[in-house]
Each structure stands twice: as structure tokens, then as C-alpha cells.
Amino acid sequence: MHLDPFHLQSFLAVAETLHFTSAAQSQGVSQSTISQHVSRLEEQLGTRLLARSTKSVRLTEDGMALIGLARQLLQCEDSILSRFRQDAPRGTIRLGVTEDLLLTRFPEILGTFRASHPLLQITMTVGLSACLARLLEQGELDVWCGMRRTTETRGQKLWTEDMRWYAPADADFPAEQSIPLVTFPDGSVTRRLAIETLNRSGRAWHLAFTSGSLGALLAAVRAGYGVTPQPAFLRNVEHLCHCAPGLLPEMPQVEFIASTRHQTAQGPEALLIRTLCLHIPRLQPDHLPL
């Protein structure tokens, strides 16, 4: 018995989205094809991988167990094909990423990319978006991934993200109180958005803690220094509380992007960006210990 890699790809697409229509769109096939692939896989393995109802799809215990095994098998196949293809991409990608992305499954997606393209090396620099953009302009990076305002146009949008205020547990900010900000240094997107949002609402604020390290900012919030503006996906970070709706003014959304030195990504950089776009549904884990 041999497992069809296309059946495994269809299963993983459903496992990542828990939605047959979205899985079909991501794979470029019909919904009925995805359903047939999954059914055939279940027949071959002799077990239910997905529990389906008219309203929802969820993974069974065997389905959850198959996810890692299926990814390993597909990565091995990609590695073999890449290794012996004469036109396999080679070289080094100098990648810059913001620290918040390292608290998602971004590193796992990079692992998937590296396994599929073993002759490509990736060196990584972690920093603030503004710093990474400068390094790209100076020719010291090939790609950087991070945050931009929705009004900006540089780079290729990966997804749109809500912003949240994170504060010490049970924090309260009366209207007459100056808001203690815990932020990145001047020039960061989140700092500018937070200050602009507070200024528009007429709320007083002051800088209580500044650091270029996201880990330091979150530690300062837990220690009671103040409130920090960060992406909504950090809501799953352990022991980090976000403010209740209405406690502070709502911030505008941001966009996470991949930016290259060229107007249109080329070569290995284009391969990397396509991989990131393909795996966007995998980015956010359910729980983030920190």
C-alpha cells in the first residue's frame, strides 16, 4: 500500500483550516476533490481522521497524530526531488524578521521551506521593522518580514492583523489618568500607532518603559510598568492580559508583509514568500508559553 502525496496534502490543508472550501481554494482544486482525497486516505488507513458535521469540522485523535507524520513524509519527498533536480535553487537568503513573528509558527514554516529546498541556506536577523527596512535598503538583507501600517504600500502583504492593548491583570485607566506606555524605541510602527490613537482620543500618556526587545516589554507589562500596544496574535501568550474593550481607544489594524529589494520578488526570495503565503493559516498557535 502506498500513500498518495496529493491525498496527504489535501488532508493537511483541511487540518490547517478546518474548512473544506478554504482547503480547496488553497490547493487550487474543487471541494469535492478534497473530500475524495480525505475519504480515500481514511479508507487506506482504516480510521476516521476528521469528524464532520453540517456546521463544523474537527480533527480526531488519529487525525491529529497524522499531521506531523504527513508533513515529515512530504518534506522527505520534497528534499529528495530538490536534491537531484538540476535546476534546484541554490544559494543563501539573508532574512530579517521581527521578534513577534518568532512567537508564532513562523519558525516552523521556515523549517518546512528549508526541508523542501535543502540546497538553500537561510541566515536570519531579528530586529524592529524600521531597522530591517534600512538593512534591506543597504543591501544587507534579501527579504524582511514584519509590520507596516495599512496605508503603506511597500512589500507584499501576508495578512492583516488587529492590534490590542496589553496591560497588567485587573488594570484600570480612569479618564483623568496619564497612560503609562511600554513601547519599542522611536520609529516603531506600534509606538507611532499607540501615540496617534491616544492623541486623537484626547488621552494623556507618558513613556514608562522603552526597549528594543519584545520579551522585555512583555516582562515590564507583567511587572506593572504600564500598557503595551501589540498584535492581537499575542493574546495567547501565557500570563499576558489584554485590556477589556472600551477601556482604551481602539487602534487601527496593521499588515504583516514580506519585502524584498526588488519591486517583484525573484528567484529564491519568491519561493520563500510563496511558501509563507501558502502556510499563513498555520501561523498562529493555540498557546504561547513565554
UniProtKB/TrEMBL annotation:
GO molecular-function term, one example from the UniProt record: DNA-binding transcription factor activity
Cross-referenced Gene3D superfamilies: Periplasmic binding protein-like II (3.40.190.10), Winged helix-like DNA-binding domain superfamily/Winged helix DNA-binding domain (1.10.10.10)
Keywords assigned: DNA-binding, Transcription, Transcription regulation
Coiled-coil regions listed in the entry: none
The keyword DNA-binding belongs to this UniProt entry's keyword annotation: yes
Species lineage: Bacteria, Pseudomonadati, Pseudomonadota, Alphaproteobacteria, Acetobacterales
Similarity remark: Belongs to the LysR transcriptional regulatory family.
SUPFAM superfamilies in the record: Periplasmic binding protein-like II (SSF53850), Winged helix' DNA-binding domain (SSF46785)
Organism field: Gluconobacter kanchanaburiensis NBRC 103587
Record carries keyword Iron: no
Residues annotated as domain HTH lysR-type: 1-60
InterPro entries membership: LTTR, LysR_HTH_N, LysR_subst-bd, WH-like_DNA-bd_sf, WH_DNA-bd_sf
Protein name (database record): LysR family transcriptional regulator
